[in-house]
Specification:
4 helices, about 10% strand, alpha+beta, binds zinc ion
Amino acid sequence: MAAPASVTVAPNGRLLRLSAAWFSDGVRRRAEARRDRRCVECQRPLPTRRTPYCSRACRWKFQGHYFWEAARTYVMYRDRYTCRLCGTRRRARELEVDHITEIGDGGAALEYSNLQTVCRPCHRRKSAESRRLRRARTGPSPSP
Ligand SMILES: [Zn+2]
Ligand SMILES: [Zn+2]
């Protein structure tokens, strides 16, 4: 399922949530999944109605359609805690999750196809590179 298009983005570009969508769409889908005893994310049959998730990974993945923190946790898990740029495996706190196409360039904020796990040095390098590319595209920024 694609996340709704409108998201709240903090000035630092990091705090993303779709609270309104969560409280309408997300909560409803969760309730339906419990009623039908099917995992809300992967549709696998569930043994009880106590939870709508078959696994931690499905909980992260489902909540990540609405909340950045969960999306981030899920993407690191999906990428096996390995930087997709240099292939180094690291602890979660040494990793970051990057928007492949930046939000400012029109990339989707909470779309798993636009998210990748990166280590800090690679992330810094990539950000510097895209700043450079943007400058090259738009010309030098006017001096203050
Ligand atoms: Zn599942
Ligand atoms: Zn790296």
